[in-house]
Each structure stands twice: as structure tokens, then as C-alpha cells.
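Q: Could you fold this chain for me?
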Amino acid sequence: MLLGRLCEWRKSEQCVIVKAGESRQKPWMILLKAISLNLLVAASFLAPSTVFAQDLPCAIDSPCELPGKDGGTYHLVFPKNWDGKQKLKPFVFFHGHNGSGKAVARNKNLARTVAKAGYVLVAPDGPEFTFRGRTTRGWAARLEGTSPRGARDDIAFVERVLEDISERIPTVPNSTVLSGFSSGGSMAWYVGCYSKRSYAAIAAVAGGLRRPLPAPYGQDATGADLRKCPGGPRKMLHIHGFSDGQVPLEGRGIRSWHQGDVFEGLSVQRTTNQCGSKPAKIETKGNLWCRDWTGCETGVPIRFCLHAGGHGTPSGWLDEALDWSK
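A: Sure. Below is the predicted structure, expressed as C-alpha cells.
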């Protein structure tokens, strides 16, 4: 009997088979109940499915780990009610100094906002190092020469993370956005400048392209060195606080390295994208004062936005970044 088989299959739930002679209900009522149950079970197979949170990889408390010298850990935060089949776009957000991928993954507003735009939030962990007598995390985000902070190649690590994600879940090709705050913003610049992978856009906040800059390949008509990013043209958005003293627009030296001058980095990106020095558009957008270079010969634009605040993320920055990344 079909109902009996269904009851056996659904043994974890309350399901009682009414045997002949044990019920005072009319036969047609028993038949109606059986049909209703069969339809309910069939509907459960036809309804859109949702992957349960405990089945999703690289969770907040159980990051995915890549082995080897250039390995490390990272976290993923998925859109609510994701069905496991819809292709997602990776939104990589690099944490700042003394931060962690776990802290980024716990940022509900960030995760919720990028999810609405069809992204999976990717939160990699920077390498551990000793700072002022304690162990912390951060990104070197620069060419380190003969005295690297650690043995790991952070660009190789990020590229491995993205390869690993594409093997775990369905993703939209060439849709990855790189973003981050402070040293995480510098990391977005660094990966965008030197990685050979394709990225949809870069959206860096309060952290620029650190020195040393890419080696010069020639000079312009005035004798100034010309430098460009080995990774090629990038759709670049940089947001920075006019009053930032932690990472000033001109950058500052810290022991043996320099944070980088934001204007120098933008010059390198303009040369890479083959843009003129004069912006095509200057406008005020709410609390942001923006300059756009859109007439670049490569067809890849650049946007630079200031806000009146200091070292922080201004309101509306994420909406601006997602709109820019379309």
C-alpha cells in the first residue's frame, strides 16, 4: 500500500497506518487522507530547496583551510535561502591590521548587503605575525624584497582561495570584486595590481597602493617615470577620508616601509588603464566628492572619492562600491 510505504519512509515523523477493522472512519475518508499525504510528499520534492546553514562550507566557526606554504584559511557567508544551484559572485573583503576573516564574516550588514546583490562574501585571513610582543594578523600588501613579513605569497594564496571556491560552489565567471579597509584596502590594490587573474572591479577604502611602486618602464614627455601594474587595467574605485591621519592621503613611513601615496597609486592605475590626467567628471554625491576618469583608451574607468571624515568607512560606501562593480 502506497500509504504504508510512505509511512515507513517518513518513520521519523508521526505517521499512523489505520488498518482495516481498527477504524470507525469511512473508507472514503481514509482514502482522502492517503491522497492528501501523497500530494504533500510530492510537493516537497517539487518545491524550491534551500541549503541548510550547517551544510554550507567555510562557515564562520569552521573556515576552509588550504594546505602548503602559500595556504591559509578563509570564510564564506552565503545569501539567505540560497538553493545551492544559483551562481554567485565572489565579493572578497580583506580585513585590516589586527583583524580577521572571522570578524569580517560576522559583519551582518556587509554580508546582507552584498548578498542582496548576488554575492557570496569571501573573508580571507591575513598571515599571523608578531607585533609589539603579541601574535596578530595583517597584510603586508606590498613587494617585500629580501625581508618578507612571512613566507606566504599572499597573492598566490588569494588566487588559490578563488580557485577553491569555484570548485566548491557555482560562481559567475570573471565576477570577483576585491575590496577591503585600511591595510585590507591596500591588499585589494596589491592583488589588483600584480595578480594576473580577471577581476570585475576593485573597491578599496582607506588604503592605497603601497611602496615600492611597480618598476618604471619608460618616461613621459616631461621626463617623469612611467609605471604600470603588471596585472593590467582594472576598474578601480578608491574611497578615502580627507581627514585621515592613520593612513593619510600622502601615506606615512612605518619603520622600514611606506603606506604609499594615494595620488601616486592613482597615477600608476591611470597609466595602466591609459587614462589622461584630467578627470572626465567631477561631482558631489551625497557625502562623497568624486572624480571619474572614463575616457581611458582601454575602456576601463577609474573613480576616486573623498569624504570629510577620518580613518573609517563612510556611510553609503558599500552601495557605491556595488554600483561601481556592475
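A (continued): Helices lie at 2-9, 27-46, 101-105, 108-116, 154-168, 183-194, 262-273, 317-324.
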